[in-house]
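By way of example, we now present a protein record of this kind:
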Amino acid sequence: MLWIKLLLSALFLAYLGWTLDLSGIVELLKTADWQLVLLACFCLIFGQVLSAVRWAWLARGLGLTVVVAKKIQIYFLGMFLSLFLPSIIGGDVARGWLLARGKDNAGWPAAASVILERINGVVGLGLLVSFCMFFLDIPLLWMLLWNGGVLFLFVILLTAPWWWPRLAASGWSGKLSGWKALHLTSPEFQSAWWKSLPVSLLFQMLVVQAHVLLGMAVGMELSWFAYGFMVCLVALASAIPISFNGFGIREAGYVSLATWFGASAEAAGAMAALWVLVLLVAAIPGVIVLWKMGGTKVLQRVETGGSDGI
């Protein structure tokens, strides 16, 4: 599967290299405003810190004892693993394992905290796309379908205290039976969930702002709402596990949507290249955390489910 993902990413990137003016992209990068690129790095790093705090809130809502500072370190480690290591464990699996390590009966709550933190982020992303749509010339059918889906999602979330206990008592069996023990309708978790939602929205806005700064650095002029629409949709597409950590799909998405909004394809390609650089810079704290924890030996423990101390 890894080789298939690498092949698809390579094909997408090769197609972009064939269709775009690479020399024009290089010239844009040479003349880029690097102060704006630095500001974009700060936006993403600050957003990742907020996401780690959101994860800690949700974990506490599920009954886990967490230290926010420790969760920030683990979050950056997970970001690094998700972005740049071709590991079968994945950053989210590593985060869940490290959160549960050393705690009794913490496996299911830890795994649920990671999954629900991702879902909370997707809800924030969906809200931001809906908001941006009202300021853009988007086909009415697209708006109706998207906002109808977001509304349906909120109905599911708001009615969870009613349907979750009934679903949990419906006779689940097998490995998924651990979800029965999760108190997703408790006041503690519900408070953590809804408190985390504005943080998710703020995180997505920081990611969009980082792209705006990168676009300004290479002269790509689009409205903030066009950036928001583009960045959020590309984030959803690149999360589909058909490429190597989203590479290729992400860059192709930026170029396609930016040109659809009237921007230069080469400017979009330059912005996409700078975003990879920003991701790399923002992942540096994860490298430091991995080194302090013992390097690749930690990954071997996660893959084997080991529980020895770090």
The mean pLDDT is 86. The radius of gyration is 20 Å.
